[in-house]
Each structure stands twice: as structure tokens, then as C-alpha cells.
Amino acid sequence: MATYTKVHDVDTAAVADLYGLEGLTLRPLEGGAANSSFKATADQGSFVLTILDNHDQASAHALAAHTEAMFRLGVPTAEVVRNVEGADVSIITGRPVLLKRWIPGQVVDRLPDELLTAAGELLAHLHGVPPAQVPDLPTGTRRLSPAHRATIEEFPDKAFADWLTHGLAGVEARERRLHDDQVVCHGDVFTDNLIVRPDDTLAVIDWETVSLDGALLDLGMTILGLANVNGALDRHRADLIVTGYNKHRPLSAEQLVALPQEIEHAALIIAFHRYYRHNVRFPDPAKGDLHTEMIDFVESMRGLTLSTP
């Protein structure tokens, strides 16, 4: 299984010294598939302390730089707190650590209609960020890498491997005929990365999959994350997200027609990662069938068209 940091593993005194915090206490936060996060409360205020369990120093610094860039460019997100030496990342018990200011609010499992429109607007705002102002922006982070693709034929579940291979070939063939704007993409706008603030506005967190990529794939991933209801696409919720997006970055007729294929591509990507994680890297019988939800989701999209506002 993956190894994560527990609260008793954290040297609270060392954290306090590194960041000049007094009266520091830590409380574990739920969620997070790759790292361990804690709410850090001190006399100076509230923060999120993230132990980057699955990062080395180079990737930790990249994550910090991307998060700082988004905050600087006006995207509503967490502000990185540098340590007393001015470094964006600290090392505690041999692991890189990132401290960010706490964003008041809550994570909502199912956003209400008005916030779905706001989520579409937020994504459009992000897609308007100048890529040149984001340091060392990678390309296509959310897409399956050649190494990932090579593992598919080795999957024990051959029927799933065939479904995945056939689906990827289909969406990628259609993508080659599509012009899609290359923009700064979040790659993971699911509900656990959105915070509903007290004034009912949204903030977005977790920039581990930020990259330069097609706007439609990122929009498709967002629709998958926010309009998946009981394993099926909720057309009304998807339309609300598109309505919000169109307010700031209107989609052409060609893009609107192509959007369902990008939602499908997003579902294929998530299906791969669920199977690979729970059946190959960290086998877990309790989660071994999670990927099948994406098969049902793709089936629920047959014949889908999305409306213009």
C-alpha cells in the first residue's frame, strides 16, 4: 500500500521553528490520494501543512512554484507561505513540506446548480491565464503517458484492457481532426479540489496536474468530476458548467459538438488510473472494481449532445 504520514510522525516543534509559528497544533485532513495534509492552527492564524509523500525535492518545488504563480495571477487558490529562510519548500523528517494559508469554507460533495455555473466560469478564468507566466509549465500532464499506455496490455483484466484501448484509439483519432486551444489546465477540478467559501464563491486547490493542454479536455474532466451522478452523466449539470464557461470563453459550434468525446476521454483516463492504482500498484480488493464506474459512465453518454446557452 502507499505510505502516508500520520500526525504523530510530524515534528511539530520543527515545523513551528521553520515557519516562525507559535502555539502550533495539527489536525489531519481527509482526502488526498497522493499526500498527507493537516490543518495547522497557530497564534498567527490557520494554515494547511502538506507532507508531499510522493514527491522529491524537484517536483515539490515545481508544485510550490505553480501554486504561487496561480495565486499571483489572480486565480482563487491557496497562498504558499515561505519559511523563515524564504524557501517555498521545507524538508522535515526527510520529506518535502509545503505550507499554505487556510481558505475558509468547505468541500461540498455535490455542488448546487448555481455553483456549477460558477465552476464553469472559474475554469474559463484559468484558461485565460497566459501560459508564459507559469514557470516550467509541463505539457499534457493529465493524458496517459507512453509508459502508462504500455502497461494496459499487461492488465490481468483483458476485457477492460480491450475496452480501454479501443476507447482511447477512438477519442484520439477524433481529437486529431479537432482544433483545440492550448491553455493552462488544472486537470483535476473534482469536488475535493473545490472549496465553497463563506460568500458562496469558489476557490480551487491542488496544482499537481497543472499543464499546457487542450481546453476541451480540461472542461471534459471538470464535467466528469462535477456532473457524474451515481455513475452516469447528468445532462442538466453538464449544461450548467458549459453555460458558466461560455460566459467568458464561448465555445464554437465545432467545439461544442466535440465536447462529449473529451468527456469520454477524461473518463477513460480516470478508469485507467483507478484500475492501475488499485489492481496493479497498490492492490486493494475493496477498491478493485472502482474503475467499472467509468465504463457505466461512458455508456450513459451514448448519443449525448450539449446545448448552447
Word description of this protein:
The chain folds into two domains: 7-101, Phosphorylase Kinase, domain 1, CATH 3.30.200.20; 113-300, Aminoglycoside phosphotransferase (APH), C-terminal lobe (Aminoglycoside 3'-phosphotransferase, Chain: A, domain 2), CATH 3.90.1200. Helices cover 41% and strands 16% of the residues. The protein is built from nine helices and twelve strands. The chain has helices at 12-19, 57-72, 113-127, 146-152, 158-175, 215-226, 235-246, 253-281, 292-300; strands spanning 25-28, 36-42, 45-51, 80-81, 90-92, 95-101, 182-185, 194-196, 202-204, 211-214, 228-229, 232-233. The strands form four sheets. Strands 1, 2, 3, 4, 5 and 6 form a six-stranded antiparallel beta sheet that branches. A two-stranded antiparallel sheet has the order 7-10. A hairpin with a 2-residue loop joins strand 5 (90-92) and strand 6 (95-101). The longest helix is centred in the last third of the chain and has 29 residues, at 253-281. The radius of gyration is 20 Å and the shape is globular. It starts with 11 loop residues before the first helix and ends in a 9-residue tail after the last helix.
How do the strands and helices of this protein lay out in sequence?
Elements: H1 12-19, E1 25-28, E2 36-42, E3 45-51, H2 57-72, E4 80-81, E5 90-92, E6 95-101, H3 113-127, H4 146-152, H5 158-175, E7 182-185, E8 194-196, E9 202-204, E10 211-214, H6 215-226, E11 228-229, E12 232-233, H7 235-246, H8 253-281, H9 292-300
Antiparallel strand pairs: 1-2, 2-3, 3-6, 4-6, 5-6, 7-10, 8-9, 11-12
Brief summary of the model shown:
By secondary structure, the protein is of the alpha+beta class.
